[in-house]
Amino acid sequence: MILTVTLNPAYDMTYRVQNFEPGRAHQVSAVEQRVGGAGINVTRILNQLGKYSRATGFADHQFAAAAERELPADFVHALPWVRRTVVVNECDDGTATSLSEPGARISGLDAVDQLLVRVTGLLGDSSAVVVSGSLPAGIRSSIPAELARLAGAAGIPVICDVQGRALELAAAVPGVVLMPDLDELERVIGTRPDTTAEIADAAGALVEDGADAVIVTRGAAGMVAATRAGAWSAALPTPCSGNPTGAGDAAAAAVISALAAPGQPDWPDILTDAVATSAAAVVMAVAGEIDLSVRQRLISDVLIEKVS
Q1: Burial (Cβ within 10 Å: 0-12, 13-18, ≥19) of residue 300
Q2: Which of 115, 138, 245, 267 could be joined to 105 by an S-S link, Cβ 3.0–4.6 Å?
């Protein structure tokens, strides 16, 4: 089982419109609502890939019940309400505009302790862990790092796909795999790398400090991975257009699926799969879904290069 942790879940709302233009009224042609959040999207995609995954984290009673009706889930009921994310999807070209609410504040004094106990109990049946997404107000920034240390102590791989101060603290956990975008990497290292070599150097410095691997996502430009075995870049010759919401979650699902398997990781293959799986999410209208046929077709198109 691969365990995912979503600390700040959301109801994902997708509005489909024709000829979307900011500043004017639109008629919405279709509306979709589903339980979401970064870790939940990772669980959805893993289950699509045939990998059993269970989601945990914080929620309210209504959200937890809705999640449990759709997928394996075991949430701590600690939120007074769950936020929404709204994606306006242009029907003609598939592009999307996303609005994310900050979420509720967790006020329960024992909420974090409950989550740590819950995760500790689930680790015995887990082959890997993903901690991803933003943090709700009232939660200390060290929680993703604490969860990563629990996974490390259990001897299982862990991805931290988090932001801001939480990412800085997670980067100090030995053996962790980080998946920042360029903005998040800049926050950690203090400068913004531009070229592939500069990105690899910056990510490699975090590996030298103890991370097992750092995979930097670059949107349509692909990804750069620095690992203990070397550094690589990967990209599609022609990027897919569409809705990028959830593309990073798809990449995390591909990476953790490989790390949960026995044997040493083959990072060029992992990075290739991550780029193809991410692109297979971009072509979908809603986050947490991939087109399996697109993923399979694109794997052979990914350009992978070793970075010296």
Answers
A1: exposed
A2: 138
